[in-house]
Amino acid sequence: MLEINNLSVSYNSNKRIVKALGPISMRIEAGEIYAVIGPSGCGKSTLLHTLSGLIPVFHEEVLLNNHPLNPKQHNIGFIPQNFGLLPWKTVEKNYLLSLKIKGNSIDDTLNERIEHILNKLNINHLKERYPSELSGGQKQRVAIARAFIMNPDLLLMDEPFSALDALTREEAQELFISLWNQYKITTLFVTHSIEEAIYMGKKIVIMSNCPGTIVEIINNPLFNTENLRQSEEYIRLSSYLRGIIKKGWSL
Ligand SMILES: Nc1ncnc2c1ncn2[C@@H]1O[C@H](COP(=O)(O)OP(=O)(O)O)[C@@H](O)[C@H]1O
Ligand SMILES: [Mg+2]
């Protein structure tokens, strides 16, 4: 479980303090997936960088599984906007990297999990390639594989599908959710796409303009609905969200 208590983040920019986020408080139960949706510049990436440990936080402001967030102790997965693959390593070395860093040995059970994930994402044949030899969609699937193989306490994703064309994006979202339904990794992702929030967020957190605070948290009744994109409810919820969001947002 992730618990955020009154978290604010500021940057020190040219001797000026720039408030970028908060204060925000929220809680994500273990095995849930939350979408955070907010306008450009409201502090979405700042939130993820804070939770991933790139920006230090103070004791007790963020608890993960009841302990103050500590990137050295906790296992935190992060998929950045550009997928974050190391260009000088093969696909296989990329998805095994976090296991290697943690010193995990690969036993039969883990091997089975890895093969299952690779097959599901249809990237088994790409093991020996380098990231520069992959399409955007393939890079994205390798990044997803790496996250699920790592099996983190918390998975963070920063607009993970925004670099893909529409069709590839829908396919990647479907693959992600189908794996997520199987492994239920506690996930927080940010997006500026209403459609993505509805498709992938079990709960949808709506943020205000900078410095971002939480405007509303919506229980998404359409999560895991079959043929969601064609349904009337989907269109209705999209326009409801657009209604809340319309104040000064550029999506
Ligand atoms: N390294 C930084 N130094 C100073 N200001 C920053 C830095 N990174 C982001 N900001 C500012 O913090 C605010 C939030 O940025 P960011 O978290 O990137 O927003 P989002 O991801 O929602 O677009 C913006 O006003 C941005 O200009
Ligand atoms: Mg951002």
UniProtKB/TrEMBL annotation:
Pfam family, one: ABC_tran
TM ranges: none
Transport recorded as keyword: yes
Domain ABC transporter: 2-234
UniProt keywords, alphabetically: ATP-binding, Hydrolase, Nucleotide-binding, Transport
Enzyme Commission code: 3.6.3.36
UniProt-recorded Gene Ontology molecular function terms: ATP binding; ATP hydrolysis activity
CDD domains: ABC_NrtD_SsuB_transporters
Entry protein name: Taurine import ATP-binding protein TauB
Biological source species: Clostridium homopropionicum DSM 5847
